[in-house]
Amino acid sequence: MSREAAVKRALAYFDDEDGYYKDLERCVAVPTECQEPERLPDLYRYLSDEMTPSFEALGYGCHIYDNPIAGQGPALLATRIENPSLPTVLGYGHGDVIRGYEGQWRDGLSPWAVTRDGDKVYGRGTADNKGQHLVHMAAIATILEERGSLGFNSKFMIETGEENGSKGLKDLVAAAKDDFAADVYFFSDGPRVDMTRPNITLGNRGSVNFDLSIDLRDGGHHSGNWGGLLANPGIILAHAIATIADARGKVLIDAWRPGPIPNSVRDCLKDIKRDGGANAPEIDTDWGEPGLTTAEKVYGWNTFEVLAFRTGNPDNPVNAIPPRARANCQLRYVVGIDPDGILPALRRHLDDNGFPMITIDDPPPGNDAVFAAARTDPDHPWAQWVRAAVTRTTGEMTVVNPNSGGSICNDIFQDVLELPIVCLPLSYSGCSQHAPNEHILWSLTREGMALVTGIYWDLGDPETAYRP
User: Fold this and answer.
1) Going by fewer Cβ within 10 Å, which terminus of the chain is more open, N or C?
2) Is there a contact between 187 and 202 (Cβ–Cβ < 8 Å)?
3) How far apart are CA 135 and CA 55, in angstroms?
C-alpha cells in the first residue's frame, strides 16, 4: 500500500480498454446540451443514471437538487464523510456540454460517440468537462481500492448548466450551504497554459456580455440620394466602440481598468509561457495593454472584445444607408472590478462621449452567461500544498496560474462557501472545446490521471495530509 502503487493502479485502469475509455464513451453518449430546452431530461438522466450509481458504488450518498430557475439544469451533490474531524474536500465537474454541431465534425464524426485517432480522442464533453471529472472519480476509486479509505472527507458536485452561465447555481448552493460546506475546493476544468508541464490555476476572470445598438429610423434609404444627409448608424457605433478600446485593444474606460497587478500574481506570471499546441494562432505582441507581458495581459488584466458587428445586410449588401446597427460585446475582467458597476460605467462613458443614442441591451440567449471573477492568493496554504503534491509526482516545480483567462462559477465557492480554490487543468488550449472536433489528448489525460491520484493519496496520508 503506497502512493506509487495507487498511481500504478490508476494508470492500469486508464490503459484498460474496459476502463476509462468505456466510461467516457458512456458519458459522452448522453447529449447534455444545456442550451437546448428539450435536453433538460438528458441533464437529469446524466446525474441519475451515470453519476449517482458511480458515486454510490464508492460509498457516497447522493442528492439531486432542482435548479431554482425553471428550465435550467439540476445539480448533484455526492457526499462521503469518513470522520467529522478530518478536512472536507469539495470537488466539482459539469455534465452539460456546448451544442454538438452535428454534421460539422471532421470525417463525419458524431459528437455523441468517442473516437480515437492517434493521441486525440474526439467527442463532445471529452475535454469540457466529462473527461476531466471522470479522472477525479477514477482517482478516488483507486484510493479506496488501494488504501480502503480516503483518509479525508469528500463532497463532489456535478452541475449541468455551466455552459449556460451556471444560472441559478449560486442561489441553489446558498440555500443548501450546510450541505455543500467544506474546507477546500479542488477540481479540473479548462486547458493548461503550458503543455510541457502541469499547472494549477487559482481562479478565473469574470465575464459579462452585452449588446450595443443604435436604431435611427425605419428602413434603409438610397445612399446616393440621401448620403451626407442621413446619419449612418454603423459609423456612429464604430466610433462609440473606438472610445471604449483604442486601435490596439487597450481598454479606455477607467472603471474597467484594474489596479496594479499584485506582486504575488506578477511573480507567478513570470513562469507562465503560453502554449496553444499545434495550429494555434500567432500572438499579436503589440495588442492589448502596453507594458504588460503576454501572460499579464491574459491572466492579470481586463480585455474588451467585439464578438459580432452587424449593420445593413452583410450577406447581400445594397446601396442604402442602413437604419440600425448592433454589436455583441464582452468584458473579461479580473478580481478588483465591481461587477455591478460594469454596465453603469459603460452608460456614463457613452453619455459623456456624445453617444446617448446608443443603447445597452441584453445579449441573445446562449450568449448571456455572466460569471464573476475569483482568485485565491498564490501564497495561500492550500495553493502551496497542491503545488507541492503535483511536484511530488512530476519531480519538477509546478507552474501556478493566479487565474484562468476564461470564466467559470468559482465565485460561488469563493464568495458563498468561502473556500480557497485550486484547479488542475487536464486539457490544452487546442482542444476545440466549444467547436466541432472537441477532443482530449490521450497522453495528457493519462498524465492527469497520475497527478490527480497523487493529490488524493497525499490528502489522506498522515505524513503529507493538508490540515487547514
Assistant:
1) N
2) no
3) 13
Beta bridge partners of 93: 158
pTM for the structure as a whole:
0.91
Query: Cis omega (within 30 of 0) on the bond before 129?
Result: yes
Domain definitions of the chain by residue range: 3-204+373-460, 206-258+302-361
Domain 3-204+373-460 -> CATH class: alpha beta
Number of H helices, E strands in the chain: 15, 21
List, for residues 129-187, the tens digit of each pLDDT value.
999 999 999 999 999 999 999 999 999 999 999 999 999 999 999 999 999 999 999 99
Give me the pLDDT at residue 76, please. Answer: 98
State phi, psi for 215 to the nearest 5 degrees.
-125, 105
Burial tier of 357 (Cβ tally within 10 Å: 0-12, 13-18, 19+): middle
Distances (CA, A) of 443 to 21, 186, 201: 13, 22, 20
Where b means 16+ CB within 10 Å and e means fewer, 285-298 reads eeebbeeeebbbbb
Q: Is 44 left (phi over 0), alpha (psi -120 to 50) or beta?
A: alpha
Taking residues 409-423, what's their average pLDDT? 97
Please write the tens of the pLDDT for every residue from 244-299.
999 999 999 999 999 999 999 999 999 888 766 677 788 999 999 999 999 999 99
Strand-strand pairing, 120-122 and 153-159: unpaired
Instruction: Give the C-alpha separation, 64 to 15, whole Å.
Output: 32
Cell of 225: 440620394
206-258+302-361: CATH architecture = 2-Layer Sandwich (3.30)
Cα 466 to the center of its chain, rounded Å: 26
CB count in 10 Å sphere of residue 335:
23
Of 69, 71, 131, 67, residue with least CA distance to 97: 131
SS3 category, 5: helix
Query: What local confidence, expressed as pLDDT, does residue 281 receive?
Result: 84
Determine the Cα–Cα distance for residues 296 and 58; give it in Å rounded to an integer. 42
The answer to whether the beta carbons of residues 374 and 335 sit under 8 Å apart is: yes
pLDDT at 365 over 90: no
Q: What is the mean pLDDT of residues 27-51?
A: 98
For 75-113, what is each residue's pLDDT tens digit? 999 999 999 999 999 999 999 999 999 999 999 999 999
* CATH topology agreement for domains 3-204+373-460 and 206-258+302-361: no
